[in-house]
Design goal:
Structural class: alpha/beta
CATH class of the largest domain: Alpha Beta
Number of helices: 11
CATH superfamily of the largest domain: Response regulator
Radius of gyration: 22 Å
Largest sheet: 5 strands, parallel
CATH architecture of the largest domain: 3-Layer(aba) Sandwich
Number of domains: 2
Distance between the termini: 48 Å
Number of strands: 5
CATH topology of the largest domain: Rossmann fold
Shape: elongated
Strand content: 5-15%
Strand order of the largest sheet: 2-1-3-4-5
Length: 230
């Protein structure tokens, strides 16, 4: 398996050893000695995965990860923490910060490779799903658009018979619902709301749960019938 990896660690010996092992395993590795240098490397090109130490001077791993998650381009980027701190509370803090995997030093290099390969496979699968979402079967898409247009044309008649059912939506869920009703796909919604596709998928899933629907067409129909969207 191959992929581009950014490795950030302030310990030269460990950094060089991990980089060599990753490259021997077929990965392309860019290494940085601190978080600021790692951030500069990220501006030159998006890697497939980031491996970063936690205990670093100036900017530690938690701060580096937060900076990544605050940037829309990097919100879905898999991040692995390497650290000498192996306490359960430290691992919990790492996961709460948004890391995808946590490996305590010293570690078995083969375990690191297994974690990296698993995360890259998961990332590739998610990208394939998202790409497929934007190239649906033409006939199915045409039918969906036709149904939504028909519902929009009948919206005024529907509005005259309001439903007593009330659904409480958060402001972000409402924004996602409005864009779904306009026929936008997840990537387009993510771009409009300046968030990640993964987050949009979570909001759409919550909308399905709250409305008891199973598809975007059903969701739009439900929203129009119950006055949940304009």
């Amino acid at each position: 398996m191959s992929g581009k990896i950014l490795l950030v660690d302030d310990e030269p010996g460990l950094r060089e050893a991990v980089q060599a092992y990753l490259e021997d395993s077929g990965f392309e590795v860019n290494a940085a000695s601190n978080a600021n240098e790692g951030w500069d490397i990220l501006q030159l090109g998006l890697p497939d995965l980031v491996i970063t130490d936690v205990m670093m001077p100036q900017v530690d791993g938690y701060q580096f990860l937060q900076k990544l998650r605050d940037e829309p381009r990097f919100q879905a980027l898999p991040v692995v923490f390497l650290t000498a701190k192996g306490m359960t509370t430290d691992r919990i803090q790492g996961y709460q910060a948004g890391c995808d995997a946590y490996l305590s030093k010293p570690f078995d290099p083969e375990e690191l490779i297994a974690i990296v390969e698993n995360l890259l496979k998961r990332q590739a699968s998610a990208q394939t799903t998202n790409e497929g979402e934007n190239t649906p079967d033409i006939a199915a898409l045409a039918n969906q658009i036709a149904e939504i247009k028909a519902m929009l044309m009948g919206k005024n008649a529907i509005a005259q018979s309001p439903s007593p059912i009330k659904i409480d939506l958060t402001p972000r869920e409402q924004s996602v619902l409005d864009l779904v009703a306009r026929g936008l796909m997840n990537k387009e919604i993510a771009r409009d709301l300046n968030t990640s596709v993964r987050n949009v998928e979570k909001y759409v899933s919550r909308l399905f749960t709250k409305t008891g629907t199973n598809s975007r067409t059903e969701l739009v129909r439900y929203a129009l019938e119950h006055g949940l969207t304009d």
